[in-house]
Amino acid sequence: MKIKTLLKLSVAEGIAGKIFSIGKQENMHPLPLLY
After folding, report:
1. Cα 31 to Cα 33: distance, rounded to the nearest angstrom
2. Are 30 and 23 in contact (CB under 8 A)?
3. Which helix (H) or strand (E) covers residue 8, if one does?
4. To the nearest 5 percent, what fractions of the chain are helix, strand and coil?
5. CB within 8 A of 31, min separation 6: which ones?
C-alpha cells in the first residue's frame, strides 16, 4: 500500500465530505461538487 495514495484519498474524501455537508446544510443543488 502506498502512503502517498492513501493520503491523497483521505484528503479527497475530507474535501468531498465538507462540500457535501455544506451543500446539505444550505439545501443547495450539487453545483459545489464541481469545484
Report:
1. 5
2. yes
3. helix 3-26
4. 80, 0, 20
5. none
